[in-house]
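tmp note - DUF2284 domain-containing protein
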Amino acid sequence: MIKTKITVGHSNIADFLQKYQNVEHFLAYCKQCQNYNSKWSCPPLAVNPRTYLDDYSEIYLIGLQMFYDEETKRQVNTKEKIVDFSAKLLRKMKNKFSDELLTIEKEFPNTVSFSSGGCAWCCKCTRSSGQPCRKPEKMRYSLDSFGIDLGKVTEEFLNIKLLWGLDKLPDYHTLIHALAVKDDTDGEILQKRLENLSIEAETVIL
Ligand code: SF4
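out:
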């Protein structure tokens, strides 16, 4: 059985960006990613990554960890299985996590959510074929696309060590999503709502 855990941190957005954003540096890495210019959620964005967040005052970072039990580790025991299992599970969980935050966006007007990594709603994104996004109501930009140092955010801000492994399934994987809010949001209620998120792990058939 895969257990999940939610961790929430929040910051004034100006302080957060000053500490963790370096657009030039991190977008250079994005250019080496297969999602670059291939997914509408990824760079180059339709919005300016340096100014898009200017209207928001606070940002909530939400980490979703998926802890693997010994039986899962025993079954997912080759490099091929680890790659296949991780890709399938993380895609399902990313979409489930995004859906939860889209619901919260509706409950708290003047908020916008961010995903981690490339958008995973469609099997093949329309961007490469020059067509508009199929699900603009669900697509949210990846936090990485704004030049945010997600590794540092995860470790320093959420106190979670990012684990990866190809020879052995790590103890857990982590997805980092976020919610930016404007001045009029009741932060206390929102923080509780986020902390109480319950996102059960999906089943993956290998
Ligand atoms: S919703 Fe579909 S078309 Fe739009 S960015 Fe995501 S994968 Fe691409």
